[in-house]
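Feature request, filed as a ticket because there's no other form

It would be nice if the structure record came with a short human-readable summary line next to the tokens. Right now we just get the raw output. Example of a typical job, pasted below so the devs can see what we mean:
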Amino acid sequence: MTDAEELRRRTAELLAAHPPAATDRLDFLRARFDAGLAWVHYPEGLGGLGVPRALQAVVDAELEAAGAPDNDPRRIGIGLGMAAPTILRYGTDEQKSRFLRPLWTGEEVWCQLFSEPGAGSDLAALGTRAVREGDGWVVNGQKVWTSSAHLARWAILIARTDPDVPKHAGITYFICDMSDPGVEVRPLRQITGEAEFNEVFLTDVRIPDSRRLGEVGDGWRVAQTTLMNERVSIGGMRLPREGGMIGPVAKTWRERPELRTHDLHQRLLGLWVEAEVSRLTAERLRQQLVAGQPGYEGSGMKLAFARLNQEISGLEVELRGEEGLLYDEWTMRRPELVDFTGRDAGYRYLRAKGNSIEGGTSEVLLNIVAERVLGLPAEPRTDKDVAWKDLAR
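Raw output as currently delivered:
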């Protein structure tokens, strides 16, 4: 049985064979994956050792102390937090072997082709079509709000394979090669000035059936694994005390006493407490993950994340007064990572507006929490038993 001491021994062996100071970063990450120390709760041969997720902290602490490189998780968050757990649960042995290692090392960036111009909040109404042709599929459609599509080699994609059944039943889940002919990525410039998001056009894109995840028509169930993990990865990220959006505001408050007022003090205290409660709740949620797949509690955490970010960033702009209205740079650029808290107060305020849209709109998540966590009656839905092709659009 592998315990903490055994993991420390294995980590020491990795460091002895591949000293971080003398080993190429990518070579070290590959060796770490092969040693089962990437994500220890994954199966042997797939970057893990099949041990409890909680033991990952033992490995991470040893490697951090030794100055070992990490895999830049913020840059590859979609692959780590959404694609990997879905591939692990539904992928074939060949798919797991092919995709998980370069995904974890960061050699291959992933994006998520889910939302569409006409199917954002109502994702199951998506219209991108995948038509069977020989031993593969031909895909046509448009996706939108795709983070990191301009950097990605692979995408997780859901498309409609049967329009003659109700909307949830006719969806299939695929892995799409973003370098294939027919895949066009266009930047979407946001209110921040950046084009972190993209729209993706798929024109006669051919995907072999070997890159299908799960059964034909079972894509909605597969997608739920992705979506629940997405909400946990956004709302349940690990933060130190005063990490995230509350940190810059607290720092300004301490360093700029001339900006303080009694009203701002009371509001900051309330938000500080809420941010700390949210942080500790996220820690508890991560501990619950040790026992299995994420549940719908991640939707609640994502809700709190969005609301708090927007309220805290609004308070920061107000605290800074005229300075808060300044904006450092409006240059159009396509960043390599999603940065919720970077740059200045103006950027944080504008970027936080997207928190209640991305990863599931707050309105949809409220319904999920109400129905699936609290057990309240479901909203009436008149389209559940209607074929997708017969829905009003």
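Something like this underneath would help us a lot:
Residues 240 and 279 are 8 Å apart (CA to CA).
The chain has a mean pLDDT of 91.
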